[in-house]
Specification:
Structural class: alpha/beta
Number of domains: 3
Strand order of the largest sheet: 7-8-9-10-11-12-13-14
Number of helices: 22
Helix content: 25-40%
Largest sheet: 8 strands, parallel, barrel
Number of strands: 16
Strand content: 5-15%
Radius of gyration: 26 Å
Bound molecules: beta-D-glucopyranuronic acid
CATH superfamily of the largest domain: Glycosidases
């Protein structure tokens, strides 16, 4: 009998955990798991004092209500009082509203709070959340809620946080027709047709989620820009979004098409030095600010991949950026000018072109321009060394552009924890001012004393119910916000917090899932592009392997341009003897990376051309090492799948199954990558697969012929 009851309970247990479609992201506010926990927090949550009045205070009040209702399962209503009475055990008030005695005791700490920062301090039986601005107070509230979500002891709280980076933005590559370039989670969440009349709840939840991780800006349109967004028809709609975002501390930015003066008003030129063009941008800026008084500014992709730009008029990137910057300057706006500038007609190695073009312009940009640089010199590959511009432009603020959407990393069906790769870049040493000059210090402005600092993430959000396609894509959005707030943040802690807030506090789940997450990045690199291989994906949609991609209009969009496999060797020689891209880095890196014996294996074929039969430090030939890494990647994906299977019943079945089915896809695609790449490269090496590497499932021809229609995101 006992056994029957136990088995019944085991079967029912997962069913008792409510289905969850993931819409609430990390703001699940999971109910307290037992009476003791509930009693502990209830004391604090029953009476809260929230002092002050503003739209942001309204947001704070609402968020507290949502959270408390969910924590306590609607059983206890919280009394959130706005009167300065000594009732609440949680006190949320700007520094000016704090009672005198508290203010005096916290005076020293309060001085350290900067504009968007906050202090959470347990003091004499109460918790004080305080800030100098409404938005700081909102951030403090979310931070307090996070501590409750992760069940921290409140008596220990003494947290003073200021963001290390000023501009923390999402970049949506969303088109006005709602398709999303490189978007794999459905259509654009911006329903331009229904705006401004209809404000979808999702816009509000979007703002909540972003504010909860400190994101304070969003560029809502594709960098391959449509000039129409700058017309009154769309400005009215953008203004409606800006109104939604404002109480959450989020500014709206728009992408500006460089030849908009020609497209919208038939000017004969878009030459940035032409007075008529300059006057056009001035007038346009004034018009935009009449709709959106706190408009953040422009994000611009120019002279790249068919986008118009200053090159068309023989002008520099600085000339282009400055014209737009002058137009928004009187209103406090900025210009984020992308450094992703390259051209197939320029004969140099593609990865050198941005540096060659921008470095000489250091110091030539207006003070409200920030140059936005991708993490690596090519294009969001699974692994790239850091972009050599970081550290090379002391007189021009540079901001980071990471890609949260996984264009080159399996797209939405692969679980790969992106913060692992971001951390690798952020901690890279540029040696610009000697050892310790990390990318992260370039970004936070401390290395070169930048007056503007920023980090942008290309959004992975769409209309999918769970926002990001893969449930774990939410972790990348979350981690991006956290790293933009503080690029030194610990990613182990970020991942753990996200798992706890999103799924369950059960440590057996959290620890196992964290292990999967933190191993996922290296696994993916192994089954896609081990040893520094890059740009070997299928043409155009970039889904799946395509090391054979060659020919066509643009050599720099092929795979053969990058791997250069021949019967003797493989890899791109970027040393002094080759393209000398290595020369764009500090001497310290030249020494280490310039030598195939000392370069870390991850970058080997990025910088060197290596014979197939060369013995590496591992004792394997290059060919064997490559094959073994591909195999290791596949085994890693299988391991992820196996470990995940063990977690059934620990979270809701809905999300468990969703992730399981994506892991099945991931394993199959990892095998596809391995088999296709090894068969293709094997034609050159003519070497047998080493022991331990499985034979490919099909002949090479099968992979060459493998085509799918309507892959999303193009
Ligand atoms: C590449 C994408 C392309 C983008 C481009 C960019 O393939 O769709 O337009 O980057 O960043 O990764 O501008």
């Amino acid at each position: 009998m006992y056994r029957i009851i136990v088995s019944l309970l085991l079967i029912l247990c997962p069913l008792l955990i409510k289905a969850n479609d993931g819409y609430k992201l990390w703001l699940q506010y999971l109910p307290f798991e037992n009476k003791a926990v509930a009693d502990y927090y209830r004391d604090y949550l029953e009476n809260i004092t929230l002092i002050g009045e503003s739209p942001t205070h309204g947001v704070i009040r609402k968020e507290l209500e949502i959270a408390i209702d969910s924590f306590l399962e609607g059983k206890t209503k919280s009394n959130i009082s706005s009167k300065n009475i000594n009732s609440g055990l949680i006190w949320i008030a700007g520094t000016v509203d704090l009672p005198q005695n508290i203010k005096a005791s916290l005076a020293e700490r309060i001085k350290e709070i900067k504009e968007e920062g906050y202090l959470i301090k347990y003091f004499q039986g109460k918790i004080f959340v305080t800030a100098n601005s409404d938005i700081g107070l909102l951030y403090g509230t979310f931070a307090l809620l996070k501590n409750i979500q992760t069940r921290k002891s409140l008596e220990d709280l003494d947290i003073l946080e200021n963001p290390k980076i000023q501009l923390r933005l999402l970049n949506h590559w969303d088109n006005l027709n709602r398709t999303v370039e490189r978007g794999y989670a459905g259509f654009s969440i911006w329903n331009w047709h229904r705006l401004p009349g209809h404000i979808d709840q999702q816009y509000i939840d979007y703002a909540r989620a972003n504010a909860s991780i400190g994101i304070n800006g969003t560029s809502v349109t594709n960098v391959n820009a449509n000039a129409l967004v700058l017309t009154p028809e769309y400005l009215e709609k953008a203004a409606a979004l800006a109104d939604v975002f404002r109480p959450y501390g989020i500014k709206i930015y728009l992408t500006a098409r460089f030849n908009a003066p020609m497209m919208l008003d038939s000017l004969p030129t878009a030459d940035p030095l032409d007075p008529l063009v300059q006057a056009w941008w001035m007038k346009k800026a004034k018009e935009i600010y009449s709709y959106i008084p706190d408009f953040g500014g422009f994000l611009v992709k120019a002279d790249s991949e068919g986008q118009p730009g200053p090159h068309n008029y023989g002008r520099t990137q600085a000339d282009g950026a400055n014209t737009l910057a002058d137009a928004v300057k009187p209103f406090g706006g900025i210009v984020m000018w992308r450094a992703f500038v390259y051209n197939e007609k320029t004969p140099t190695d593609r990865i050198k072109q941005a540096y060659d073009e921008f470095k000489p312009l250091d110091g030539k940009f207006r003070d409200n321009v920030i140059v936005q640089v991708k993490n690596g010199p090519l294009d969001f590959q699974p692994r790239e060394p850091f972009h050599p511009l970081f550290g090379a432009m002391p007189n021009t603020p540079l901001m980071m552009e990471f890609q949260i959407t996984k264009e080159y990393l399996g797209q939405e069906t692969h679980w790969v924890n992106l913060s692992t790769s971001w951390k690798e870049i952020l901690q890279s040493d540029t040696y610009a001012k000697g050892h310790g000059s990390t990318v992260s210090k370039v970004l936070d402005g401390s290395l070169h004393n930048y007056q503007l600092t920023g980090m942008a993430g290309v959004s992975n959000i769409g209309t999918d119910r769970n926002w990001t396609g893969h449930h774990t894509g939410q972790a990348d959005w979350y981690a991006f916000g956290k790293l933009a707030w503080n690029p030194e943040s610990n990613i182990d802690g970020i991942t753990e917090d996200w798992l706890k807030m999103t799924f369950t506090l059960d440590p057996s789940f959290v620890n196992a899932a964290k292990k999967i997450a933190l191993n996922s990045y290296e696994t993916l690199v192994n089954y896609m592009t081990p040893l520094g291989l890059h740009h070997i994906m299928a043409r155009s949609h970039h889904w799946g392997p395509g090391p054979w991609v060659t020919g066509g209009g643009r050599d720099d969009w092929t795979a053969t341009y990058y791997h250069k496999a021949s019967k003797d060797s493989i890899g791109f020689d970027r040393t002094e003897k080759g393209s000398n891209a290595i020369g764009q880095y500090a001497q310290e890196w030249n020494t280490v990376w310039g030598n195939p014996e000392t370069i870390p294996m991850e970058y080997l074929l990025w910088f060197h051309r290596i014979p197939w039969n060369k013995k590496l430090s591992t004792g394997n030939t290059l060919w064997d090492e490559m094959a073994l890494r591909y195999q290791k990647g596949v085994e890693g994906a299988r391991w992820m799948q196996k470990e995940w299977t063990k977690l059934e019943g620990k979270i809701d079945q809905e999300r468990f199954d969703h992730i399981s089915s994506f892991l099945n896809i991931q394993v199959k695609e990892a095998e596809w990558w391995r088999d296709a790449c090894l068969l293709y490269f094997g034609q050159f090496s003519k070497m047998a697969l080493p022991a331990g590497v499985e034979n490919p499932k099909h002949e090479l021809q099968y992979y060459l012929n493998f085509k799918r229609n309507f892959v999303p995101g193009i």
